[in-house]
Amino acid sequence: MLNSDLLSENPNLCIFLPFYFTLWEDFNLTTTDIDTMKKLINSQSWLKKEEINLLEQYLNPDQKPSAEELKSWKNQIQFIKPQNLKNLTTLGFELAKSQQNGHEVIIQDKDLKAFQKAEKELGLIFNEAAYRFEDSHTTVTSLQQSKSSFDPKLMQEILDGSKIDLIQKVKDTLTKAEFAYHQYDKIEDQRAQVLEWCKILAKEGYGSWAFPREFGGRADMEGYFTIMETLSYHDLSMVIKFGVQFGLWGMSIYFLGTEKHHQKYLKEIGSLELPGCFAMTETNHGSNVRGLETTATYNHDDKTFTIHTPHQNARKEYIGNAALHGQKATVFAKLIINGEDYGVNAFVVPLRNKSGELHAGVEIEDCGHKMGLNGVDNGLIAFNKVLVSKDDMLDRFASVSDEGKFISSISSDNKRFFTMLGTLVGGRIGIPRSALSAAKSGLTIAIRYANTRKQFGPEGGGEVPILNYRMHQRRLMPLLAKSYAMHFALKYLTNRFLTKSEDEGQEIEALAAGMKAYGTWFATEALQECREACGGKGYLSENRISDLKNDTDVYTTFEGDNTVLMQLVAKSRLTEFKKEMGDMNFTAIFNYLTKQAKTSFAEKNPIVVRSTDDKHLLDFEFHLNAFKYREGAIVASAGQRIKRLVEDGMDSFDAVNVAQHHLVNVGQSYIERKVLEQFQLAVETTQNAACKRSLQQLCQLYALHTIEQNRGWYLEQGYMEGVKTKAIRKMVNQLCWEVRQDAIALTDAFGIPNQLLAAPIAFQS
Amino acid sequence: MLNSDLLSENPNLCIFLPFYFTLWEDFNLTTTDIDTMKKLINSQSWLKKEEINLLEQYLNPDQKPSAEELKSWKNQIQFIKPQNLKNLTTLGFELAKSQQNGHEVIIQDKDLKAFQKAEKELGLIFNEAAYRFEDSHTTVTSLQQSKSSFDPKLMQEILDGSKIDLIQKVKDTLTKAEFAYHQYDKIEDQRAQVLEWCKILAKEGYGSWAFPREFGGRADMEGYFTIMETLSYHDLSMVIKFGVQFGLWGMSIYFLGTEKHHQKYLKEIGSLELPGCFAMTETNHGSNVRGLETTATYNHDDKTFTIHTPHQNARKEYIGNAALHGQKATVFAKLIINGEDYGVNAFVVPLRNKSGELHAGVEIEDCGHKMGLNGVDNGLIAFNKVLVSKDDMLDRFASVSDEGKFISSISSDNKRFFTMLGTLVGGRIGIPRSALSAAKSGLTIAIRYANTRKQFGPEGGGEVPILNYRMHQRRLMPLLAKSYAMHFALKYLTNRFLTKSEDEGQEIEALAAGMKAYGTWFATEALQECREACGGKGYLSENRISDLKNDTDVYTTFEGDNTVLMQLVAKSRLTEFKKEMGDMNFTAIFNYLTKQAKTSFAEKNPIVVRSTDDKHLLDFEFHLNAFKYREGAIVASAGQRIKRLVEDGMDSFDAVNVAQHHLVNVGQSYIERKVLEQFQLAVETTQNAACKRSLQQLCQLYALHTIEQNRGWYLEQGYMEGVKTKAIRKMVNQLCWEVRQDAIALTDAFGIPNQLLAAPIAFQS
């Protein structure tokens, strides 16, 4: 036995202890391993014959040490308190020296070399094997910690901007005791609570914020979006119920109605005395709303419209506020006058009276349980010949004359309908802003948890916060960067919407459609990642990520299916693109642009294509150029492709279908360029140097991570070479590592009140 | 006015009608458009002065046609029932001819040319503008439909394999009235129902299926996995409760205990008379279970173990069956004998008696609401010095001798613990098989819905099933292909596990870890995509996708966090890789392999690198080579990278951290190669020609889609050039288009009973 007796007789033998311990602790000894050890033993001229025999015996699996023995070896080794000994040989040698107690160290340099060689052959070249005997082995990974490079309060001011006071006011409301979260036993309780909350919000004046002052509002549309966004740090059923009432129902009256409707309804809507619905979608027509089948048939005799649902699948579906509380609804229906169809128009239709009794001819079915948003009472509505008066037509864009004739300033039914929809584009701003808040909550919770949650660690050292692991950083830091990117992008979208001139309408609509799709996909992705990154804790409802995810999951469907919206954006981009090129022939334009792009890239070759120095990789101009190149090349190639297919005889509908995947990329690349532009602009206009530096880093991470995701495309195009995309990957890793240090501060800067975050895992130490 | 009077006077003017209609219907006329039209008008020598004036007047926005007028124009055009007229010029000319009624057609070829030119300049070159006047415009896209190329029953036989009878038996059980789905008002009701279902399953003998015959089982482990998988077409809370009781609790007794424990417990576990738990995870130790802090201190005086929870964060957490029903638990705790720590061992510890009263010293807290699986009563368990007898140690791998000494055939505490864990690897087979069933359910529902749901369509034609859209195919078909890929891969994993020799243990453990991660990430992705692809319908609970998604969401955490598992796989691959290379020096191996790979690629250049012909792209050998190359190159470069960093002086823990992202790719690429290999093998051994063809196509789609996802890597490596990755993208689109025709049959072949699918949207016509 390698016991104390033997070792005290010849303490030089101690040099073998770390080897033997490691072999028996970790290895299933192979014959190769055994041979290696035998060679080592026999190379040591200082060993006596019987010592050699003993050492060799100890390699026999039948005579392996017991668990106790193994432990005693380890204790012996640890007794010398080894520190920073890089390999087992050095450790063994130190151990041998320390045990001499008057004996002579007889191990020589050439002997040590043989140990080193054996160590290498056994695959113990990494220092882990030696570290395990240490008490407090620390590593760069272990030592990394949160360390804010800026003042989070200042950063919050940058994010909140001019609406900082309103944001605080809303937070003050939400942190009152009435708004404490509940776990609901039943869906009915949840719906009742959500209605209650909405009533309080209405009382505070938030519901009517966007309405004109004469109807109790503040005439502040920007404020309304800010309210939606801030409320979204709280329960999202409440937000959607709020949005249905004041945004969809209220705004449809405001934008599609005229003075008489405003007078009649707005005040009561804003105070929530008149809960209502926005009834557009039908079971058979969701994305393709132009095909709605509900009819509004005009009867000139009594000057009424008959609202009618022709069949079950033409019922209005998913209508918020319909199942329980809605008393009236803006109903979209095809207007029929004298048998002629004038396309989809909007009407105010009664659903139930103040006591909740259904109006004659109205049938409502509850949509029942949903993946999330169970505090919202969505329903199906069928109209069985419900009469409404001529005044109930929302007549801003079309009306019926006193003579019973259809009048509209827009002759085309389609154009008229899309003009009406265009006024309601605000929904496509409110939704991504709400999604972003939810993503910010999720990221704050997941990042805080990862900062305190420790798991694994170096041999001989303590466990390490999981946020120090590169993979965890890769999971969360790019999302954090993107949340900042989306913040500035959605601010920009809001401003463009609020200040738009008439001829910017289509651009803003496309922008909103694209931002809505991009932003809500982001939220889904971010919250899914947060759920997984928090492991079992992320699965518990108390930590809120599951609700955030489930409640926002439908945002990718709300206000238009994202995939459909991205195609809308693409079509608008193709049209825009053609328009920008003016009179030039279509083919010529494409050829020109493609050549243009290729030339500019060829000119830069090899400087840009292969350049991998940090300065270049972090350069804003490089980023934006890469985004722009991608955007331009994709839109040009998509247009060319469709054109070629059609010229070759393909039906244009089929051609667009063949290119559908391509078109989604057209939309995506356009939105990404817009987002990056705004983020860069925000960095450039930031005054505080520390905040600016941190934002710059986030912006670089957003840009490079996006390029990395699209690297297949850049490589295909020859816009970058492999050496460069690899360097970008490394740089993304590096930026993740650096941003991690600011990560807590960056989430603090979101300024989400702790009471609203609520997740216990966000408050551990 | 372009009214009937005028037109009947000179019907040739009708040629302008389609142009004017389209301009006013679609355009916001720009000055360029107006100029184009004026040029056209003035080019027509047959027009009289007043006709020219009138036509020009009609371009004045102030004198635009009314909605009624527009409609009358359209009616006029449609009156001739145009069919397949490719542009407005032809349409106008046909219209003009048809209206002549004895008049003369005075429009000549050169006039028509001017129309064509104008049409091009106005951007009306696509035929959509003309199609809208047709009655029944059909396109290739419209006409695509489901059309099975094989017999789904035969395909189902291939999938079910030798367990076809057992699968049918389980389905017969699940389609009985007792198993009808419920919507629960309260979590208590759900838990009660799930327990009830498990009792029925136990009565049918499913719970003990894997147990030896002498304990009421069938000694059929393969059957047990089949049961888990088939049950997973039903409620997943039930599946997990079932798995906790019979898989975790039962198997821990079976694999970690010895005869005495089997005698004492197995029969009652299999019949569910003794509900129990598997208590490993603690709040502070989930992934890093080696660090568990619960202690089991041996007292030789009374031969007992004292089970103790040292602090709140060392409580057992997320333990299934703990909150309500569990009477005993297999508890993992550090065994302490005489102050010496012998690592983590397992003990049977009482939680509550048959009447549900907690055992003295046991404290249990309910985990409460979760994202999903709310039918499972997960809880936290704290032990306050709970005494158990010496016999309660599960002593297959370690025990305490009569003299109070620790005995084990495995000296190393770590190795012993990982050996114990190794026997429980079945959980990492059951979980991905359950996940796959859930994904199959989701895909069946989403694909059936997309096959009947119609939205949008060509101008003048009917609406088209959304499954005919390329983008929708791209969303669902690769997932369908991957579900087949996973099916064969998990079958292979199961067989390897069941037939493993002793020295295959580590390989199988790595394989199971990797397949679990790959398979559960797949399920999460697939179900998320299904949710979105079904729009609002996918959000309603009645259509089950939301529950499938939420219930399986934690599968990526269960049985080990996927990211951690993939790193385990990577480490095993690095070790394996080194071992395969035998005695060779580590550095030499890497250099050799890297060179090897580069040479083989260089040899193939340019044939493989640029080859884009269909035969090559669809070739199994090309696919597998590409997967293998990726796997080999990634593992070699990861090893080299870590080695270089350590040699440069970095702590090995830090070096592994730096390469963490890389390591996850090592695991992923290994699993992907294994999956493809098994899928190809399954295709090759399929007898029925029609099924074989269809499986072959799915296998090609799986392979090419995976390559497409990794195309950035292949391009970086120079393994493929852009021209090839673009061709692959096209081929993926084409395969999606072709697989779509078989999609309904391919989901029918899963053989999921309609009662279990249940989603109304899966049963529309």
UniProtKB/TrEMBL annotation, chains A, B:
PANTHER family: ELECTRON TRANSPORT OXIDOREDUCTASE. InterPro entries: ACOX_C_alpha1, Acyl-CoA_Oxase/DH_mid-dom, Acyl-CoA_Oxase/DH_mid-dom_sf, Acyl-CoA_oxidase, Acyl-CoA_oxidase_C, AcylCo_DH-like_C, AcylCoA_DH/ox_N, AcylCoA_DH/ox_N_sf. It comes from Marivirga sericea. It comes from the Bacteria. Keywords: FAD, Fatty acid metabolism, Flavoprotein, Lipid metabolism, Oxidoreductase, Peroxisome. Its cofactor is FAD. This is acyl-CoA oxidase. GO terms for molecular function: acyl-CoA oxidase activity; FAD binding; fatty acid binding. Residues 422-572 form the Acyl-CoA oxidase C-alpha1 domain.
